[in-house]
Design brief:
Layout (H helix, E strand, L loop, with lengths): L1 H40 L3 H18 L4 H36 L3 H34 L1
Helix pairs in contact: 1-4, 2-4
């Protein structure tokens, strides 16, 4: 009986040791990947904001709305839409004037926006790979 018990304790200890090593390894990989993502984002933190907005918009589009939410929010939606349209028009006018005063044209702005978006996509990809790799390592 004591041999069976010792064998069981040994197997449990071995399993615990392997699990501890795997968790440590997954944590290390995830920390390295987060460091990579951080270094990719640091030069341009706006890319992180744009990536977050894009992910939020995608999630919002995929989550279904029920009839109850639709009927409760419909009257408010019209008011918000009108206010947002007025705010957008004012922002376009003020922003256009500020950009003209700074000497920035559409092509320069477009290339900067493209670079920001590319960095946001890269950062999201690195973070996703880190999470996937950590999950795989923890599952082994």
């Amino acid at each position: 009986m004591s041999d069976a018990r010792n064998g069981s304790e040994s197997k449990s200890g071995d399993a615990y040791q392997r699990l501890t090593e795997r968790v440590g390894s997954a944590y290390s990989v995830a920390r390295d990947r987060v460091g990579e993502a951080t270094s990719a984002i640091e030069p341009n933190p706006v890319a992180l904001v744009l990536g977050g907005i894009a992910i939020g918009a995608i999630a919002g589009a995929l989550i279904p709305t029920g009839e109850r939410e639709r009927s409760a929010l419909e009257p408010i939606g019209g008011k918000i839409s009108d206010a947002a349209r007025a705010a957008l028009d004012a922002a376009k006018t003020a922003g256009g004037e500020a950009l003209s005063d700074a000497g920035l044209d559409r092509n320069a702005l477009r290339s900067q926006a493209t670079a920001l978006f590319d960095q946001a996509v890269k950062a999201a990809g690195v973070a996703g790979e880190a999470a996937l790799s950590a999950a795989r390592d923890a599952a082994k």
